[in-house]
Amino acid sequence: MLVLVAGLTIAAGLALGWFDPGSVEGDARGFRPAEAPRGDPRATAWPEYGYTRRRTRSNTALRLVPPFRRTWRVDAGSLLEFPPVVAGGALFVGTNAGLALSVDTATGRVRWRRALRGRVASSPALAGREVLFTTIAGDLIALEATTGAERWRLRLGTAVESSPVVVDGAAYVGTLDARVMRVDLRRRRRVWTARAEGDVKASVAVSGDAVVVGDYGGRVTAYARRDGRVLWRQTSPGPRVGGAGRFYAGPAVAYGRVFVSNINGRVLALDADDGSIAWVRVLGGFVYSSAAVADETVYVGSYDQHLRALDAVTGVPTWSYDAGERISGSPTVIGGLVYASTIARNPREGRTFALDARTGRQVWSFPDGRYAGAVGVEGLLIVTGVRTLYGLRPA
User: Fold this and answer.
1) Is residue 1 situated within a structural domain?
2) Cα–Cα distance for residue pair 377/55, rounded to 1 Å
3) In which band, very low, low, confident or very high, does the pLDDT at 14 lie, cut at 50, 70 and 90?
4) Structural domain tally of the chain?
5) Taking the alpha carbons of 273, 276, 282, 287 in that order, is the dihedral positive or negative?
6) Which tens digit of pLDDT belongs to each residue from 316-372?
7) Could you tell me if 378 and 335 are in contact, meaning their C-beta atoms sit under 8 angstroms apart?
8) Residue 142 domain flag
9) Would the pLDDT of 18 be above 70?
10) Which residue, 104, 94, 103, is CA-closest to 132?
């Protein structure tokens, strides 16, 4: 364990990204327990990728306990890279074949299908009576939630893999030509466009009056929601070979900190106010997994085949679980369980599993999964397999 040493050399090195001291333990300075993620025991919606605008991917108050019984399954027809969103008794999801689907969560009946003319590599977001999808073809598309009819389409000019986040009548997305945008949903036009230091594949998270996201230049940036001004920008520490790496994973905002994973194997905790580094934890492989945050713990998977629980204050691991296969997708926390899936070399061998969030002990496993952890609403767990959605209810 390394001790965090005050000094200009280390501080400057971390800021520049070339100096990598390895894992750096944090402390409670700037940690705000009052900004913990809040759960809802009777939640009927999972409206955003990551559950809330802060993308914490957790609802610890929702009680869904295995064993489960499968009540329905829906073959989406092609790869599902990201999980659905849920509201009003329906789920909404996009596929790699460019298809948007809505499914009745009580019966598994497909309510509608809509071709989007562009591959979907993101979760949609709910915005009132509309569902927003982004596509590799470079569109932001609003579909009517009940019928799937296209309400409007905005060309963003380049491919988009970023799941929209919706707040105050606006959607924020990143693009693969290094831009972050705010779109006015009523006027259906861009309000501002800001530059990033690299392609933005991650989904934007809301942090107070800012939105924050990492990019493929190895930087994490907070932009003012109102006008897109850069409020702070932090460069990831990294090894001398590979440097600052790339942020594929999206951030999670809680406890006054921004938790974000880097492909270069680092998980960072940044101060949400100024972007200063609170701690760094080096894992044993590529980290594509966005973190889930609950109960002062950060849960993250890695290509070293482990799912880990890190102390949100210090970054020190509290437990590690060997999944036997790489973990690429983001975990979710529902009740007292953390769910994740494995990206097996043979897709048919992937699985979704649940661990006790306090101990890391496996309590449940399901024989399908690849990228997405489970999402849940009252009485229903929804599992995303390679190309199939499953509705599971407590037995």
Assistant:
1) no
2) 16
3) very low
4) 1
5) positive
6) 999 999 999 999 999 999 999 999 999 999 999 999 999 999 999 999 999 999 998
7) no
8) yes
9) no
10) 94
CA-to-CA separations, 116 to 48, 139, 143, in angstroms, rounded: 20, 9, 10
Residue 2 lies in a domain: no
Query: What domain range is 103 assigned to?
Result: 8-394
**pLDDT exceeds cutoff 80 at 243:** yes
Ranking 2-6, 264-268, 309-313 by mean pLDDT, the lowest is 2-6
CATH number, domain with residue 241: 2.130.10.10
CA distance 302 to 287: 5
Amino acid at 362: Q
Q: What's the chain's length in residues?
A: 395
Over residues 163-188, the pLDDT tens digits come to: 999 999 999 999 999 999 999 999 99
pLDDT band for position 240 (cuts 50, 70, 90)? confident
**Residue 224 carries which side chain, given as an amino acid letter?**
A
Give 190-227 pLDDT, tens digit per residue: 999 999 999 999 999 999 999 999 999 999 999 999 99
∠ Cα 35 37 39 (to 5°):
135
pTM assigned to the model = 0.95
Contacts of 117 (CB under 8 A, 6+ apart): 98, 135, 137, 139
Q: Is 344 within a domain?
A: yes
